[in-house]
Amino acid sequence: MAAVDRPDLERALARLRTTVDDPRGGIFGPSSRVWAINREAVIFLGGGRAALLQLAHPVVAQAVADHSRAREDMLGRFLRTFEHVFAMVWGDLDAAAASARRVHAIHAHVRGIVRETTGGVSAGTRYEANHPGALLWVHATLWETSLQIFEMIIRPLSPPEKDAYWEETKRFAALFGIPEELVPADWTAFRRYWDGMLASDVIRVSPTARDLADFLLRTPAWWLGPAWQWMRVITARLLPPRLRAEFGLGFGPLECAMSETSVAALRAGWWLLPGSLRYLPAYREAERRLGVRNPVGAIVDQLVDQVVDQLRDRLLWLARTSR
């Protein structure tokens, strides 16, 4: 299948626009299941899992190794990536489309050749970041991870809820120009796709992927050591056992006990947090934009967001100066 080109993307965006009732609410909006689930800040616990699942595709790993600057500014790259994702999920329709075009333009220059044979992917295989198959795998890792974290911490979801959620995520797939016929029709079809990919010889951890994972999970600064080690343990818990082993992530009795205790504490206490701490700033900003937050709540949210922004800037500065 040929890579998604700019005309393909524009046709997908045009179709998407016809499905949106209120452009101010973007491609999902406040009544969507995507907003109800992905507003939970605890979803970020799955960030490492989603990243490693993506790297477990040898084509994705090679593309990241060849074209990413993650080794130079890992934390900064992480935050910039989510700026695009947040614009697509929480922004208005024009902001989502603009981010889609920027990401597509960046991906258009990401192409090359896989340099090592891993599983069913042979050395010499050509890759392009805008290839529909690679785009679908990255898309799948994000939404499957979100649901896993939500069910682990918040509550289980019924099959109809998962169907409705997956149906909505097809709009996000359109922002990358992924052909409609390639996207699984419903949650049952998605699970067949997901399980089939994990069982296939395509999803295998290459030496390049292991090297990238080691760097990703390495503490960027000494003062982040305990938090980074905790995230490493949580990431190991969330990965399928085979991939955990292929990435070389230890998960013995101590790590298991640590992760289970953490999950139990989060599950018991997360619902007690106020919305200003529990929900993502991007979600609360979207609510303010649409006028669905009460004035007092909006003021509290803005104060919290200012503190979070200052902490983020401080973390970036410290991470750069500690290297």
Describe the overall structure.
- With 323 residues, the chain is mainly α.
- The chain has one domain (6-280).
- The chain is built from 16 helices and two strands.
- It has a two-stranded antiparallel ribbon with strand order 1-2.
- It starts with 5 loop residues before the first helix and ends with a helix.
User: What value does the average pLDDT take?
Assistant: 89
Work out the count of structural domains.
1
- Order of helices and strands, N to C? HHHHHHEEHHHHHHHHHH
Low-confidence spans: 315-319
Q: What radius of gyration results from the CA coordinates? A: 20 Å
How many strand units? 2
Strand content: under 5%
Summarize the structure.
With 323 residues, this protein is mostly helical.
Which tags fit this structure?
323 residues, mainly alpha, two-stranded antiparallel sheet, 16 helices
